[in-house]
């Protein structure tokens, strides 16, 4: 299975929706597209929606952590939302939720990040 990436800007927040599999075959594409969107447009924060992400491996974790570091260096925050159980388990075991909040849905994540702005 391949990966689809959809990006949208909402009041200074880059919303990234991933569908499919984020693995060593697709991680470079996601990294490049997210980096380009972060550099090209003014976005203070990132919301990563994983509702339709079926699988993720360690290279996917690397992409997420790298974008987290990038946005944090710019003074922003990153949040994850709509995480399905298998991906949630991987993110939890990796310790990602200790540094990045997870929300039930995009609306909750956007509300929290806009309060922070």
Automatic annotation (TrEMBL):
Task of the protein: In the phosphorylated form it could act as an anti-anti-sigma factor that counteracts SpoIIAB and thus releases sigma f from inhibition.
The protein's name: Anti-sigma F factor antagonist
Matching InterPro entries: Anti-sigma_ant, Anti-sigma_F_ant, STAS_dom, STAS_dom_sf
Biological processes annotated in GO: sporulation resulting in formation of a cellular spore
Family that this chain belongs to: Belongs to the anti-sigma-factor antagonist family.
Entry keywords, A to Z: Phosphoprotein, Sporulation
Domain (STAS): residue spans on this chain: 3-113
Domain of life of the native organism: Bacteria
GO molecular function: anti-sigma factor antagonist activity; antisigma factor binding
Species name: Paenibacillus terrae (strain HPL-003)
PROSITE patterns (alphabetical): STAS
């Amino acid at each position: 299975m391949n990966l689809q990436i959809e990006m949208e800007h909402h009041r200074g927040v880059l919303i990234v929706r991933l569908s499919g599999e984020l693995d060593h075959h697709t991680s470079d594409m996601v990294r490049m597209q997210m980096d380009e969107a972060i550099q090209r447009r003014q976005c203070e924060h990132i919301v990563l929606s994983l509702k339709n992400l079926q699988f993720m491996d360690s290279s996917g974790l690397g992409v997420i952590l790298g974008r987290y570091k990038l946005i944090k260096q710019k003074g922003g925050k990153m949040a994850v939302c709509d995480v399905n159980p298998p991906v949630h388990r991987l993110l939890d075991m990796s310790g990602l939720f200790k540094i990045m909040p997870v929300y039930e849905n995009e609306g909750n994540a956007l509300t929290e990040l806009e309060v922070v702005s």
